[in-house]
Amino acid sequence: MIKSLFMLAVIATFVVAARAADQNTRVVIYDGVATEVSAAPEAASDLWITTADLSRATRFVIKPQGVCRDELCFPLPKNRKAEFVSKKGTTTWFNLSAFAKLIKQPIVVDQKNGVHSAGSER
User: How far apart are alpha carbons 98 and 95 in whole angstroms?
Assistant: First the structure.
């Protein structure tokens, strides 16, 4: 039963990844959970996602004290804030790639399939 559920999860991840590669979406795998997110169209190597997608994919939110998940907060360097947060029109974008580097989390990117994996494995 567990083996079947695992295979189903793997297949679902590849289906979502295939869809993401064809559109302006990506798949973020964070702490073992795959979430389809919108990516900034002009982003080159770093993954910029909306703050709503940041919360959905990672459970992190941006607060005055930094980027927080529950009671854990990581302050953003004040002199580098533009590297992490960008407002375009009514949408606020967050650089998940730069954040992963800041907190020394490994990040693996499959550009062909639009998959970005960060965070600890379960």
Answer: 6
